[in-house]
Amino acid sequence: MKRGKKIAALLMAVVMILSLTACGGDSSDGDTTTLTIAQQHGMAYAPLKIMEEQKLIEKYYEGVEVEWPILNSGSAINEGFLSGDIDVGAMGVGPAIIGVTGGVPYKICSNMSAQPHKIMTNDPSIKTLEDIGDKQIALVSINSIQHVLLAMAAEQQLGDAHALDNNIAQMSHPDGMSALISGSIPCQLTTAPYVFKEAAEEGITEVEALESVWPNGNSFIVAVASTELQEENPELYDAVVKAFAEAIDYINNNKEEVAELLCEEHDVDAETMLQWLNDPACVYSTEVKGIMDMANFMGENGFLEHDTPGSLSDLAFDNVVGN
What we know:
Blueprint: H1 2-21, E1 33-38, H2 46-54, H3 56-60, E2 64-67, H4 74-83, E3 88-92, H5 93-101, E4 106-114, E5 117-121, E6 137-139, H6 145-158, E7 168-170, H7 173-182, E8 187-191, H8 194-199, E9 205-207, E10 221-226, H9 227-232, H10 234-253, H11 255-262, H12 270-277, E11 283-284, H13 291-300
Parallel strand pairs: 1-2, 1-3, 6-7, 6-8
Antiparallel strand pairs: 3-10, 4-10, 4-11, 5-8, 5-9
């Protein structure tokens, strides 16, 4: 009987252990949590490259499998959030503001980067916005951050935020660069690395227009996370936020290594990429800057279909700092 009691006790202990390991939300239960993070191409998205390369989210949350699809636009990312297929994504400030105010189920969880934005031209007679007249300007899409920046400059310099809306030719950044260099379009409003590549081309110059309305260091790309992730799995959400902070810190303190990582994607040598990373307008930070200024402008000039956000908390989770 004693031996039978020992076996029964052992079996009971095994059952208890198995029942305990079946509870909980991380890798202790043997299950894997899948996290989908949508990224896009460009220097501005470097923190995501570091997070993927160094497995930083996995560092802070055991048992997570991260998927990294590459999409071509903020609108595609918004569709992914609406369908529940995307948990975290990165996009321009303007589209993020439109998304939050329009009911896409996410908020900003971190800033990512500021990058230089310029209007470049192959026409030597175009030096200011007034010189553009009825000539076309290539930019990535209507309601993109590039469109909003053009409107901000038009309001300041032409007296009408929408004075150049009819000039817009919607093109991806690479296609717009090709059209500008070939001469098939006279102007392009674009960002890094395209502004750097275009500036190196003979006959391509900058139209002085944007720095006064969107100074160096103001946010360009922000990260957004689904409200479901933040509310239902706060531990994983915190791991994402920590991973962003570590990736951005790594970029700022290891630019030579980052240049080696990014140079192949952008078809330049590491030395050139390092020069681009050291440009004063290329800033990686978790702190948002200028977002409420842009939100107020967008609300006043018809970019938002719904109410203008009253404060940063309307657009971002509580961990986000800045203005």
